[in-house]
Amino acid sequence: MDKHQEVTLLIPGPTPIHPAALAAMQWPMRSHMDADIFAYNDQIVADLHLLYKTGPGAFVSLLSGTGSLGMEAGFANLLEPGEKVLIISNGVFGERMIEMCERLAANVIPLRFSHAQEVDIEAVRNIAFETSPKLIAMVHGETSTGVLNPVAEIGEIAAEVGALFSVDAVTTVGMLEFDMAAWGVDYAYTGSQKCLSAPPGLAPVAFSERAMQAIAARKTKVSTWYSDALGMEAYWAVGAKGRKYHHTIPVQLHWATGEAIRVALSEGIAERSHRAHFVGEATLKALSTVGFGAFIPEKFRLPTVLAVTLPEGLDDAKVRQELRSKYFISVTGGLGATAGKIWRLGLMGENARPRYYHRLMVALAEILDAPELPKLFDEVCTVA
Amino acid sequence: MDKHQEVTLLIPGPTPIHPAALAAMQWPMRSHMDADIFAYNDQIVADLHLLYKTGPGAFVSLLSGTGSLGMEAGFANLLEPGEKVLIISNGVFGERMIEMCERLAANVIPLRFSHAQEVDIEAVRNIAFETSPKLIAMVHGETSTGVLNPVAEIGEIAAEVGALFSVDAVTTVGMLEFDMAAWGVDYAYTGSQKCLSAPPGLAPVAFSERAMQAIAARKTKVSTWYSDALGMEAYWAVGAKGRKYHHTIPVQLHWATGEAIRVALSEGIAERSHRAHFVGEATLKALSTVGFGAFIPEKFRLPTVLAVTLPEGLDDAKVRQELRSKYFISVTGGLGATAGKIWRLGLMGENARPRYYHRLMVALAEILDAPELPKLFDEVCTVA
Question: What is the rounded distance in angstroms from the CA atom of residue B251 to the CA atom of residue A202?
Fold first, then answer.
């Protein structure tokens, strides 16, 4: 590879690394047990509580793996073999949840909606009351299709049936409003490389007080030593129960992610959400003039991953290959059932910037012989 | 923390980051599915085969977590619930293996030797023949005590009883001779931050062909989706069975670790092993003049983690605190049973350098009022 070549990442993660995160990875190395690291981790903890809007008694930390390990860690900690979990799935990541829970020998109750379809809240309520699961799990923003799922509404149902509630916040927290306490969420996680624009490799996670109590009350030990919340707590906590060696944390990624969280909180989630919305709107308006269309109705469209249908006759693989090789722009196609049918444009963290999508318009203007594209885009979205 | 302050890391990991690894983390970002990344991963694969000296049909890759996840992944993949595993333990990391296997509901046969004692090979042979385990597991270099365990000899026993053989190579591979094929090792792993001097966060792992066949023949799915070797293979393999999305790999850590592996192979393991030996020897000789002693007899002493007993009356915590705060030198004490009794000096990758240990001698000369220490050290070990 040409290691000096910049590539514009318009993909649904990883996103372009924020300069503050990139710089932090060059700080002089420390031991994972150094007082400097514990102090830095304490700041991360304080910031994660703000990011997730946790309630009292919540435990937040960085899990030493990617967002998928964050997904798995939740199920491994909150479920014992044979316990019931209701999984609401309308995409690839909902299916991944089902797969993980089956492997963990949970009693899995899948509630499937078609990919790209919205969740039927009454259907969830009915099955939740019928089955009384210990845990209800759902993806907030389905990266595979660009659907935003109704977390607050499902949280109400979880409260009604007395279930714990686990939410995949991979494409939402840090960019869109996320209110763990108000929505009754007991476990949430993301990946460092998504809405925070840090490098990939960490999963910022949050357990509610109720979730930690459920873990403490388990009859069996968590099957994974590595992702056991109690082991993580022994390292992360302050005072007598904390500061204990568990495993060597990825020091550079802690710094980068810590800086990225500060950046997100400083800018403010409302402002970041606004960026995702207006860049997405301008992109969709411009692209719709050459035959692209919105894949998801506005009502349940995810602002951070814009899924667009392709113009008739457009050769998906060929055009994306040309974008990558000639214009150094990465665009992602569909995943699973939507492969070859859609593009998924990332609007998370640093890729929700007008200047990056302007580059896409310039490139597509040439490829599709549509010279007006950049101007159409700029009319909606002033180039920053 | 003062992010500009350099700290000399004389600890048994993480080690000072190699400059090539540090630089690689600044390369422009790529998607985890980019052709550049696959090409770079292919180079890592070729280098990992050389590093571990794998036999034909082996599968090597980087696991997206630390060395402890590498440990857990081996057991999760190679054992099904109820299957027998013989674990040889003479330290904290052997005990961690036992804990992990119990959590995975394996039938654990622990064979414990006192911490800091050598493994009795005949005792291993006897219990292996008595119990016929599916898997025998052992730590090569016990970081907690500085003991080097006899991998080749236990590999012979595994072959005699037809067991798979898993080895923790966390403090050895990349710095000491490691010959997976010759020793009959079926699974080995390390952490990126140990002998390779890359940042922490990845576990370079190697499965033998026989291990992959055992995984393919499982009756149950691996309980962890994240660390399933078949899922990893689907991403890492070339040709029709590879290049499939599994999870987002930690891109920057791949680059840093890839460069660090190249550095290690370029220098040569014999040369790196020589560095560890002669810096360790000079350190022990100098320190023995002020009352430190070798904790482990030379016969089974680990060259990459020098464990030393403390002079009578030396206040362990106070002296290490002074080293850290006044001289910016990190030294690690004992772990578990050896806490307060020993120091563990790292001689892995970039910390096996005379200039770093010279700094320790200068600092201890002042703290212990022993002005001759630096000279004594330099007499054995010319400052590079």
Answer: 12
